[in-house]
Amino acid sequence: MVTKRRAGRSPEAYLPLPPATFHSLLALADGELHGYAIMKGVAARSEGTVRLGPGTLYGSLKRLLQAGLVEERGERADPERGDERRRYYRLTPHGLSVARAEARRLDAMVRAARRKKLIGVRSV
Amino acid sequence: MSAERIYRLLLRAYPPEFRAEYGREMVLLFRDQCRESDLRTLGFWARVLWDVARSAPALRLDAWRARASENTQTSEVIMKLAAMLTLLLGGVIGILNAVVEWVAATKQTITGTHELSLVLGVFASALLLAAGVAMLNQTPRGRQAARLAVLASLVMIVAARLLHPWMSYFSQLVGFGLPVALLIALYWPRRPSLAGAA
Q1: Residues in chain B whose beta carbon is closer than 8 A to a beta carbon of chain A?
Q2: CA distance B85 to B89
């Protein structure tokens, strides 16, 4: 059983998030998902650049559960994937705040890169 | 041997507690991957091996750290004992030892460097005494103050040893051994981060 830590840290204290962690949080922003759905969501959203294997995915989920950013929502079967019961996960309000803080951080970086004309201009 | 059986063998690379918690889910996910991949390709197995190789050592390290700081109460008691030992050995006995060496030295002809090394020894012991007091106050600021005091004490004792190579074994043991042991205890990691293999 994962021991949940007190959610006393500010969202900014977790930044910057490792890419796979941020992708997992983004996938869970859609709602409750099981491991395989998170993996597929991450691969689709990153256009195949981030591929999570079972070890990386569940290692990341374990840390997110411990930090109180994600919570378990019990086990049930996914009708699309057979009768086997799967564990579902969802974002906590604290996890959502951390994902928003990371998105703001990345947005600020992209805006800075645009101001420096590193992106958003046609290469000659 | 089936692909799932091979994967179950690979799962042994993970810590037992992690396997017990997520092993079944990982096998289910692997089964899903197998349904949508060509198991005969080298690429598939390279990805599986890469996933195990990058995540298992990080999780082993996490498990080892968790075991090390499992019982906070025990570690707090150990820190209190270390603080008291520092007060007794480093502070009180250290200062007494320096005074005894000082008195013994004054009976002979004492050089300037010898005198300076004794003064440094007294200051180093006083700093260890301060570190012990700071450690008894078990707050992050107390720990930070203790770290600074121990580092300063170590620097002083190194300087004293360079000035006075005939320093007694007791002074060397207390002067070098105690600060190094305390620094290890004070810098011991306590809070795992989100960064791992992810």
Answers
A1: 14, 18, 21-22, 25-30, 32-33, 47-48, 50-52, 54-56, 58-59, 62, 192-198
A2: 6
- DSSP assignment of B135-159 equals HHS-SHHHHHHHHHHHHHHHHHHHH
- Residues paired with residue A85 on neighbouring β-strands, in sequence order: A77
- Mode of pairing for the β-strands spanning A33-34 and A85-91: antiparallel
With a CB cutoff of 8 Å and minimum separation 6, the contacts of B168 are: B97, B101
Secondary-structure breakdown of chain A: helix, strand, coil percentages, each rounded to the nearest 5: 50, 15, 35
pLDDT at B60: 93
Mean pLDDT of A1-24: 78
Between CA B32 and CA A39 the distance in angstroms is: 11
For B163, other C-beta atoms within 10 Å of its C-beta total: 19
pLDDT of residue A101: 96
Neighbours of A44 (CB within 10 A): 10
Q: What average pLDDT score do residues A58-86 get?
A: 90
Q: Are B51 and A55 in contact (CB under 8 A)?
A: yes
Beta strands in A1-124 (DSSP E): 33-34, 70-77, 85-91
Chain B residues with CB-CB distance to A35 below 8 A: 25-26, 28-29
pTM: 0.62
Average pLDDT taken over every residue of chain A: 88
Dihedral sign (CA A117, A118, A120, A121): positive
**Would you call B29 and A54 a contact, using CB atoms and an 8 Å cutoff?**
yes
